[in-house]
């Protein structure tokens, strides 16, 4: 005996239910189709929300992982000192600390020239990537050019430029930063720290591994540096990304709500199917009652039928939904595997659970009605 | 008392919108183990109503029902269902087999919702006994009328009842098939000591019965 037969023998309600459903395949099939559509709608709208969120996260990049510390000008602090940077390094347990010194100077290549912002950084690799060339871990010589400046002055890695009268070899052109950025390099030039005039720092950027680590660092830095006076202002972009996350959460709930409506319609169709099939089987149910089958067993049998319709529809709907997710993600994100993340499995499970629950709920009234019919009435011709 | 089932002063009234129909009037009846009783009478005389009261499918308006010397008149639906399962086997004129189940599964139906691992063996033995050992996996639409009634008889016997109640068991069968079903009844009541109460119009039934009860207008004659 195979396991399915074994299960059906153990749970007679299931055996009877399965046989009853196979009696009118078209009708059962249509009821299942309703559930498939409902489950597909909920699961794929949920996954659609995930795809939108993932797309938005890609646009935002790691910005939620970064914080920026700047001198509090209102308290008369003009710039951050080496001591401040040391204290920041001590406060940050996990993440790169990038002190920045900035200035505005004349940059030229050949006969073209422009005034741009220059940033002095020791470790620009912690926050920037190159679109062309290479960003060294420690910047000791050479210059990194922002994409806007590079375009304006027609610069490529290997070119020589003059910054404030000194000449530099260009190591890399930096990738264009889209959207919001704490230290936007697009129309700037990055130089070794000691080549920028001054002794203090205009800003310190901390790049952490996660949004949560960034937030913890921000708290620690405020405690450390602002203990006696408000020496620094700490700016977190996490609040923005949290707001965006919240927006997508609401959007998802809304989408799933729309999907649920189709499941309600499917539930009504199951109610109709079960009602019809119990009315047709009136006599049979009367015979079952006559030979000693209890009311509760009749209820279980009919609920098992509804549950089987829901389970079959749920499983097929889940498979379709995963297929739809793969199609959507390969189209929108160019990454079909993005479908297989925990939150999407949650949506699929949620949709299947809703589908089965809706079916069983819709079976309740027909089951109750069939079980409470008196067998004498059912057996009268 | 040795009566397995007994009705005392049983009345059954149906209130059909103003007019009250008295389907049973002061009926006293009993059957003993191993006894074969036929109930005869014109259409509408209350035969089916009496059988339903005997089978604990219906409750009398007045009077008392005893099953195995116990008063079962006012039991709950749950208790009545349990008693039906334990004591009573039903055989219907139109067989009432479940079309989606095989002969063997139909016989097992009364045992399905309960823990009864030996049921399959008993069902097989019973089908062999009624001459359908080679039809175990046939569905009802693959069986003749007489074969269906045999499956129904096997189903009625699966829980080893003390009483068989049959409403026109030969009504849908030709004479010869009817006779073979009656031979089977005779064998059952002798071998299993089962009381059989059969409602019928079939005159050949009197060849088999110990007693015949006449119902006219709800009264035993
Ligand atoms: N549920 C019911 N409601 C109203 N009248 C009924 C009901 N069941 C039976 N009767 C009436 O009771 C009488 C006896 O019916 P029944 O026992 O079926 O007779 P028989 O089986 O002898 O033909 C008939 O007059 C019938 O119309
Ligand atoms: Mg009748």
Detailed description of the structure:
Chain A: Its main location: membrane. The complex is a heterodimer of chains A (381) and B (221). The mean pLDDT of chain A is 88. By secondary structure, chain A is of the alpha+beta class. In chain A, strand 6 and strand 7 form a beta hairpin. Helix content of chain A is 56%, strand content 17%. Chain B contains six helices and ten strands, in the order E-E-E-H-E-E-H-E-H-H-H-E-H-E-E-E. In chain B, 32% of the residues lie in helices and 27% in strands. The longest helix of chain B has 18 residues. Chain B is of the alpha/beta class and 221 residues long. The chains are: A alpha+beta (381), B alpha/beta (221). At the A-B interface, helix 2, helix 8 and helix 11 of A face helix 2 and helix 3 of B. The structure holds adenosine-5'-diphosphate (ADP) and magnesium ion.
Note the topology.
The complex is a heterodimer of chains A (381) and B (221).
Chain A: H1 3-10, H2 12-23, H3 25-60, E1 66-71, H4 82-91, E2 95-109, E3 112-120, E4 130-133, E5 143-145, H5 147-153, E6 160-163, E7 166-174, E8 188-191, E9 203-208, H6 211-225, E10 232-236, H7 238-280, H8 282-290, H9 295-332, H10 342-372, H11 375-379
Parallel strand pairs in A: 3-8, 5-7
Antiparallel strand pairs in A: 1-9, 1-10, 2-3, 2-6, 2-9, 4-7, 5-8, 6-7
Chain B: E1 5-16, E2 19-31, E3 36-40, H1 47-54, E4 62-67, E5 70-71, H2 77-87, E6 88-91, H3 103-112, H4 119-129, H5 145-157, E7 163-167, H6 175-192, E8 195-199, E9 211-216, E10 219-220
Parallel strand pairs in B: 3-8, 3-9, 6-7, 7-8
Antiparallel strand pairs in B: 1-2, 1-4, 4-5, 9-10
Helix pairs in contact in B: 3-4, 3-5, 4-5, 5-6
The structure holds adenosine-5'-diphosphate and magnesium ion.
Magnesium ion (MG) binds next to α1 of chain B.
């Amino acid at each position: 005996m195979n396991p399915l037969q074994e299960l059906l023998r153990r749970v007679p309600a299931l055996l009877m239910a399965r046989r009853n459903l196979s009696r009118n395949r078209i009708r059962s099939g249509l009821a299942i189709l309703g559930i498939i559509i409902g489950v597909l709608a909920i699961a794929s709208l949920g996954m659609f929300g995930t795809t939108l969120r993932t797309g938005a996260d890609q646009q935002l990049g790691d910005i939620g992982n970064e914080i920026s510390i700047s001198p509090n000008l209102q308290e008369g602090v003009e710039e951050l000192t080496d001591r401040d940077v040391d204290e920041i390094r001590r406060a940050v347990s996990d993440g790169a600390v990038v002190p920045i010194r900035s200035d505005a100077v004349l940059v030229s290549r050949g006969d073209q020239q422009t005034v741009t912002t220059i940033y002095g950084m020791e470790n620009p690799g912690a926050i920037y990537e190159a679109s062309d060339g290479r960003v060294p871990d420690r910047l000791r010589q050479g210059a990194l050019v922002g994409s806007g400046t590079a375009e304006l002055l027609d610069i490529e890695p290997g070119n020589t430029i003059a910054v404030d009268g000194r000449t530099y070899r260009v190591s890399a052109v930096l990738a264009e930063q889209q959207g919001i950025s704490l230290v936007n390099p697009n129309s700037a030039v990055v130089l070794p720290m000691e080549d920028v005039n001054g002794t203090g720092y205009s800003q310190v950027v901390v790049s952490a591994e996660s949004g949560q680590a960034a937030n913890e660092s921000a708290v620690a830095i405020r405690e450390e540096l602002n203990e006696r006076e408000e020496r620094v202002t700490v700016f977190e972009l996490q609040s923005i990304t949290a707001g965006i996350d919240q927006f997508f959460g609401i959007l998802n709930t809304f989408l799933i709500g729309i999907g649920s409506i189709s499941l309600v319609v499917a539930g009504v169709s199951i109610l109709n199917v079960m009602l019809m099939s119990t009315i047709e089987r009136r006599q049979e149910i009367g015979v079952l009652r006559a030979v000693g089958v209890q009311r509760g067993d009749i209820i279980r049998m009919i609920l098992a039928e509804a549950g089987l319709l829901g389970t079959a529809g749920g499983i097929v709907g889940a498979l379709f939904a995963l297929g739809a997710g793969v199609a959507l993600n390969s189209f929108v994100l160019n990454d079909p595997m993005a479908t297989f993340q925990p939150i999407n499995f949650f949506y699929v499970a949620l949709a299947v659970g809703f589908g089965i629950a809706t079916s069983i709920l819709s079976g309740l009234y027909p089951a109750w009605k069939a079980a409470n019919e008196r067998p004498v009435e059912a057996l009268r011709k | 008392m040795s009566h397995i089932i007994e009705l005392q002063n049983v009345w059954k009234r149906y209130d059909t919108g103003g007019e009250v129909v008295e389907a049973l009037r002061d009926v006293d009846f009993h059957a003993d183990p191993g006894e074969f009783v036929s109930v005869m009478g014109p259409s509408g005389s209350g035969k089916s109503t009496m059988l339903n009261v005997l089978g604990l499918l219906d409750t009398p308006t007045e009077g008392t029902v005893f099953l195995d010397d116990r008063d079962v008149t006012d039991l709950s639906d749950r208790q009545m269902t349990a008693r039906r399962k334990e004591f009573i086997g039903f055989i219907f004129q139109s067989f009432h087999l479940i079309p989606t189940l095989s002969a063997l599964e139909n016989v097992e139906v009364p045992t399905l919702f309960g823990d009864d691992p030996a049921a399959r063996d008993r069902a097989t033995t019973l089908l062999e006994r009624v001459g359908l050992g080679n039809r175990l996996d046939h569905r009802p639409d693959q069986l003749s009328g007489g074969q269906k009634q045999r499956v129904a008889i096997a189903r009625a016997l699966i829980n080893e009842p003390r009483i068989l109640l049959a409403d026109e068991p030969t009504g849908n069968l030709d004479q010869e098939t009817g006779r073979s079903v009656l031979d089977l009844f005779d064998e059952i009541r002798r071998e299993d000591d089962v009381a059989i109460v059969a409602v019928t119009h079939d005159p050949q039934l009197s060849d088999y019965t110990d007693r015949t009860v006449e119902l006219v207008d709800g009264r035993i004659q």
